[in-house]
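Give me the fold.
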Amino acid sequence: MRVVFRLLVCTALLVATASVLAGPAEAGGIEVSAQTSTPRVAVGDKARVKGVVTHRPRGTVVTIQQKYKSGGGWAQAGQTTVNRKGAFRFSERVNTSKSRYYRACVPKGRGLKCSASAFVEVVKPKAGSIDVSSWTAVIDAGQTVTVIGTASENLLGQVVQLQIKSGKQWTSLGQSLVNPDGSYVVAGPVSQAGKAVALQVAAPATSVNLLSVSRSFAVTSFGWYFLSEGTPKVVSGYPVTGAQSINGTTYPNSVSLSGINGAGPGSFTVEIDLSRDCTTFVTVVGMNDASNTEARYSGRISADSVEVWSQASMAIGQAFPVQVNVTSALRLRFNVTRDTWANGRLAFGDARVRCAF
């Protein structure tokens, strides 16, 4: 009986010792994943692969294998290592026009544990097609134009720009990306005024795409023009331009009209060529503050001989805000009448017109 007991004790000790020497069980099975951050490249570009290996320590070697789409087996493309989070990255320059698959492998037992394959297409650069479906057709200068359209498959995920023509150059106003379904929406502010401001949508050249450009299209962009600056043009009469003070307020971009000092009552006119390109005229009308207190002037504004505003017998200390519709008018006419012998000047403070020339 004594011999049997000692044998059982020794057996138990051996089992316990073997368990200690074996160490803890593996925390879990190896998982390897890989993906390409460059699904389409041109010859000379770099193909990039990244992924994660689980349950392996920092510094574990990852073998990157490659196989051509045209055929053949897997071959080693290179090696890299995982960081403390198990992530890895790999890149190589593409020297042939063959599209290919990549996968990542790590040792497991006597073999390898490999990820699913990731495909890289090697393409010859070419231009894509960009269609414009709709856009903001009429704006005030400084407002945003929004363009909606579609682009060809080779431009998916690529940058498209809204561009404006300035002289012979095209300048970007804003940009966005082409959506996975080929649609895009791009917008940008247009500060330039004009009857037909030329725009286009373009995808800048990349290693896999040539410069791609849509058809050009135009927007009507209205701007405000001070009459004192000479646009639109005066076609008759002789207004004085510059700063004018009306009822204590100075208007730096004004026009004014007056009779000859010492002359009696009379009328005089000025005509402005609007070319049927304007919509609104705005000003503040009143006697210049330097006028004689006895001076009285009457004023009338017409659009193509249709009176749109009038005020009789104006004196200093009065100011009359004016905003009139001049849509499609060819001529804007100012008729001023001097009602007394006293010297004075009728001013149109910051006289301006909204046009798209």
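DSSP finds one helix and 28 strands in the chain.
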